[in-house]
Structure formats: structure tokens, C-alpha cells
Amino acid sequence: MTTVSFMVMLPLLLHIGITMVMKNIVVQSIDQVPYDVWVFPGIILLIASVSTFSLIYRDLFDLRIHKKSFIPITLAPYGKTHLVIGFLVTSIIESLVYVIVAMGVLTVLLPEPLNWSAYFIVPLFTLLYTFLLGNLIITFSVLTDRISTYLSITIFMFLFILFATGVLVEFDFYPKTIGTLLSYFPLSMILSDLRGILFFNRVEWGPIMIPVATALGWTWLNGYMLKRKLKQ
Amino acid sequence: MEASITLKKVGKLVGDKTILASLTFGVERGSLVAIIGDNEAGKSMLLKVISGIEYQEFGHVFINGLDSQKRRLEVLSSIGFVPHEIDLDPWLTLEENIRFMGMMYGIDIEMVNTRMIQLARELHIIPYLKSMVQDISPGIVKKGMILRALIHDPDILIMDEPTAFMDAESYRHTWDLLLRLRGEKTILYVSQSLKEVEEAHDRILVLEDGRIALDGSLDKLLGSTFEFHQFQIEFEELSDDLFKQLSKLPKVKNPSRIGHSIHFYGRERNVFFEVLNAATAAIMKDVSVKKLGLQDLMDAKFAKDGIH
After folding, report:
1. CA end-to-end span of chain B, whole Å?
2. Residue A71 and residue B104: Cβ atoms within 8 Å?
3. Nearest Cβ partner of B104 from A73, A79, A231?
4. CB contact under 8 A, B89 and A63
5. Do A76 and B105 touch (CB under 8 A)?
6. Distance (Å, whole) CA B3 – CA B112
7. Are residues B97 and A69, on separate chains, in Cβ contact within 8 Å?
8. Shortest CB distance from B104 goes to which of A63, A76, A79?
9. CA within 13 Å, CB half, B207
10. B300 CA to chain A: closest CA distance, Å?
11. Which of B87, B95, B146 to mutate to test the interface with A (most CBs of A within 10 A)?
12. A71 CB within 8 Å of a chain B CB
């Protein structure tokens, strides 16, 4: 019951705290898309970020540092990369549930309805986004041994996602060099490409393939780091 | 007999400290082996290395003839491990914890349920299966951990303090199950309870500073290290001459004197009668004979010096 309430409350809070405030400042994007429609994919991926952080904490970091059934899991006959894929798949599936509920809630609040195809494309990009972000969180879940350090990194990462991946405003509003640098961050690429598809029917394969390749390589690297960390 | 576990020159370092020092031994299939030793002797690390939780820096561990590092995934299915500390997920029920691990080993859910019920019945934990782990007492949880380790029917069961936190009844149920499995599975366990080890073993390994100090059955260890019995005779007055006379008897080992009492060791009980015969002229107040056990063996003085 708590989880369901959280799933409904989170998009509502983000809508009230971000969309309703920012639309009075930004009004519309540089490409003339109303702000509350433009920010929709960002809010959805922000929700995916919140759920991914908490799910990987629950499934990996908490079990590992509190010695709760993590060692028995590592003794099951699977490679470490296989285990990392398991953690990723779990977090992707659960994040998708969060995202689908959030899309339902936010759709009611949007001034104009999204094209029906958005309800397939957004979850698809959420999958890719969670695949990449999940790897990042797994990396510091494996490398960190203290909750305080983990929390600090989590808060830093969340602020970075909020302010430096194009969730709130376009990179054109940033100083030119910083905006360009941030736009090459793989998480930013996914969000940028998602907006391109949703609002301009423009598909760029580069911003899709780079995060996919990065996430695949990172998954293997996480498997290797887990193996090293556990000395197994 | 076929070896189930074989260690060849296994060495383990933590930082620059040697925890296991070039250990070489084999464990016969189906045997029940107890490992004892002081704190920091390397017992738990030895179990971790054998079960694959941590790799050794040197040497090789073979499980059923397979190198545990090179053939890790094949080897892991043969091993069930029970750690000392409780490591079940507290937010799941006992049943969910066990089912989850059964599924991790790719066991059919029907088979998992059948095994779970059968083992839970033997361990007398059926009423607790649907309880959240955080609501169950540690002794019951420990039995649940043994069940979890057996759910994929491993050939080898490795346990660190298998009966920790258990009351007398749980202890008995657990050992009833483990002794039933003896012969069918290779069982290797660490315990600080010497009474437990004396009662249940085919072989005892005594670890000291990462090395095997002693290896064999209890009788073999006691026989090879020092004599079987400890005797004590308290006299009304023990003169120096009488003490010297008794000490010189050929079968009397390590005689010592405390007040008017003489303490000595002997392999056979008839030593005692020889001493009594030699001391008939003196008035005796009390006599006692004690068969030596593991506690005596583990006593640092005896373990290191033996009886001369």
C-alpha cells in the first residue's frame, strides 16, 4: 500500500514542485514546445532515477554491506556478470512499473494529450535509461562500503541528473562549453533523443547506440569489479 | 576412499598477514570432519576458501576432483555453505528465503517444496516457515540456514558453528539430521564447542596459526599427543621419598605434586593399580581417574609440549 501511494504521490509532487513552477519561468522550449509538455519525459526519467536508486540499494548494497543473503547469492552457480544482469533486469522491470503509473498520473495533468505512440516510446527509453543508470549505481554500490558515503554519492548523482542532464531546462540555457560537455553525457543523450522522437519525429541513432554500447561494456565491467571486490 | 575435498599447498593472506599457511590435506567422501582451533587460527577462512566465498592466494582447492577456481560454476552446485552469522533476508519469510535460493540453483519449484517440507519436518521448523525471519529466534533461523544450504542437495555441506544460538532440543534435532546425512554427504564444520566435536566427528583437524597442528580421530589425537588418562591421588601425608618412588614407576608420565596430592598421566588404567600397590603403606584420602578429552588437548601447555 505504501509503495502504491508513493508511486502516485511522486509524479504529483514533481508536477507541483517542478512543472507548475518552471512553466511560469520558461513557458516554452526554444523549439516552441509548451514547457509542461517538454518537461514530461524529463519528469518520467527522474522518477525512473528515484526508483532505480532505491531498488539497487535494496537488492545489492543493503544485502552486501549488512551481510543479508548476498554471499549465498554469489555462491549460486552464476558468473558475476550474470548476477549484475539480474540486478539490472529487476530494477528495470520495477522502474517500468513506476514509470507506467507516473505516465498515467501525469497524462491527466497535461494541458494537451500526448500522441499514443509516446506510451510505447517513453517506456522503451526508460528501459535504456535505467540500463545505463543502473550500471552507474551498481558501480558505486560495489565500490562503497559505508552508508554515509553511499548516501553522499547518491545525493550528488541525483542533483547531477536533475540539473545537468537536461531534465529541467535545455542545454542552450547553459554556458556554451558546459552545455556542450553535458550534452555528451550518455544519460543526457537518451533524454535528448527521446524528446527529439516525441516532439519532432526525429530519430538519431548515435545518441541511442552510444548509451547502449556504454551500458553493455559497463555491465561487463561491473561483473569484473564485483568479482574483484568479493575476491571470488 | 575417494577424496571429496583436496587442498594442495593452499595459502591465504589478508593484507600482509598469513591466515592459511600452505595447507595440504584431503577429506574423504561422506566423512564428518570437525575443525577446531583458537580464535584467529584460520578456521573460518579455511571454510570460506573451500566453499568458494574467497579465493586463496596460493595453491589449489579441488572439489570432487575439479579445480575450484578454474571450474567454479560446476563446483558451486556441489557445495552448501552455512556461515556463522545469520544472513537470511529479514524482510522475507523463512520459506521465501529458502525458495529463492532453490530457484537460484535452478531447482524445480516442486522439488524445492518437497525437500523443504521434508527437511523442515526433520529440523522441527514447519511452524516457522511462513514467519518473517526478523520475527524468529536466532536458533530457529540457524536451522533455516542449514535447510537453505541443503535445498539444492549438495554433495558437500560446510558449516561454521552449525548449532550456534540453539537450545538443547534444536541442537539434538540438528545433529539427528546431520548424522543421518553422514556417509551420504561430506560434512565439514567448525565449532568452538569441544563437547559437540567430541560427540560428532570421523576426524578432527586442529588448526593453529593457519597450519594443521593435529589431524585424526579423537582417540588418535589423544594417543599420539599424550596419554589417555589423568590420575590424582590425595594422601594424608605425601613424603618426598614416596613422591619420588611413585614418579619413578615406568608407566607413570608427567608426575606433579600439589600439596599432598600426586597428579600423573598413564595410557592404561592398570598404571593406577601399580601406583596404588606401591603406595599401600601411605594413607590415602581420595583418588580420581579422568579420561582426557579435547579440552585437555586444546590446553595450550599440553598441545604444545605434550607429556614427556
Report:
1. 35
2. no
3. A73
4. yes
5. yes
6. 28
7. yes
8. A76
9. 28
10. 34
11. B87
12. yes
Interface of A with B in 24-63 (CB under 8 A): 63
Instruction: Read off the CATH number of the domain in which B233 is found.
Output: 3.30.70.2470
Residues B186 and B244 in one domain: no
How far the first Cα of chain A sits from its last, in Å, is: 39
Question: Across the interface, do A75 and B52 touch by the CB < 8 Å criterion?
Answer: yes
For residues B239 and B213, membership in a common domain is answered with no
Closest Cα of chain B to A232: distance in Å?
5
Are B191 and B161 in contact by the 8 Å Cβ rule? The answer is yes
How many beta-carbon pairs below 8 A join chains A and B?
Answer: 54
Question: Who contacts B13 (Cβ-Cβ below 8 Å, separation ≥6)?
Answer: B19, B57
- Pick from B54, B79, B87: which is nearest to A69 by CB? B87
- Which structural domain range is residue B140 located in? 3-223
**Model ipTM over 0.95:** no
Q: Do B87 and A79 touch (CB under 8 A)?
A: no
Residue-by-residue pLDDT tens, chain A, 232 positions: 788 888 999 999 999 999 999 888 888 888 888 898 999 999 999 999 999 999 999 999 999 888 788 999 999 999 999 999 999 999 999 999 999 999 999 999 888 878 888 999 999 999 999 999 999 999 999 999 999 999 999 999 999 999 999 999 899 889 999 999 999 999 999 999 999 999 988 888 888 899 999 999 999 999 999 999 998 8
C-alpha cell recorded at residue B9: 599447498
Q: In chain B, what is the greatest distance between 2 CA atoms, to the nearest angstrom? A: 78
Binary contact (B73, A67; C-beta < 8 A): no
Tally Cβ neighbours within 10 Å of residue B307.
15
For residue A84, how many C-alpha atoms fall within 13 Å in the half-sphere facing its CB?
Answer: 28
Residue B233 is which amino acid? I
Q: Are strands B66-67 and B229-235 parallel, antiparallel or unpaired?
A: unpaired
**B252 in the same domain as B197:** no
**Minimal Cβ distance to B73: which of A63, A70, A77:** A77
Three-class DSSP category at B207: strand
Residue A49 contacts residue A133 (beta carbons within 8 Å): yes
Is the whole model's pTM more than 0.90, yes or no?
A: no
Q: Which of B228, B211, B210, B208 is nearest to B294 (CA)?
A: B228
The reply to whether residue B54 touches residue A230, judged by beta carbons under 8 angstroms, is: yes
Give, in degrees to the nearest 5, the angle at Cα B85 between A152 and B67: 95
> Shortest CB distance from A68 goes to which of B76, B90, B105?
B90
Q: Report the alpha-carbon distance of residue B158 to residue B47 in Å, rounded.
A: 7
- Are B205 and B246 part of one and the same domain? no
Measure the CA–CA gap between B237 and A59, rounded to whole angstroms.
Answer: 73
Contact of A230 with chain B, judged by CB distance below 8 Å, is answered with: yes
Q: Which residue has the cell 572439489?
A: B63
Structural domains of chain B, count: 2
Is position B166 within any domain? yes
Query: Residue A50 to residues A56, A121, B160: CA-CA distances in angstroms?
Result: 10, 20, 39
